[in-house]
Amino acid sequence: MNNLFIFSIVIGLCIGVSNAFHEIGESKVVLSNQLEHSKLLKVHCRSKDDDLGEHILKIGQDYEFTFGDNIWQTTSFSCQMDQGPNFKHHQDFVAYETSWSKALEASCKWIAREDGIYFSQDGVPPTKKYQWDGPH
Q1: Which of 11, 98, 115, 132 is 20 to 30 A away from residue 81, measured at CA?
Q2: pLDDT, mean over the chain
């Protein structure tokens, strides 16, 4: 009986600590379609534990998701963007990765433009990070 009581307390504390980190470390990733000529943008993001599915964005639309970093600070999301006729131009990239040097709260924005994919964090002006790959 004592072992069950102690086990219950330990599990409760672990859940409480995990929830505390989740509440404090809320992060956000935004993917934005700023392409031209009415092009659609297909985005698909996933982590080791979660597959967020495919989303089709019209010009001017954003797709965003929020999450809490795990307690081991190993949270990572990779995304794929596809655009153009039959979505033949694409790029795979790491959209978010926890680092001990980062603040507990982060906001990352990835912007699809005709000449490539741009990145902005916490309101800093975007910089070009990737070119579009050719047909696959």
Answers
A1: 98
A2: 84
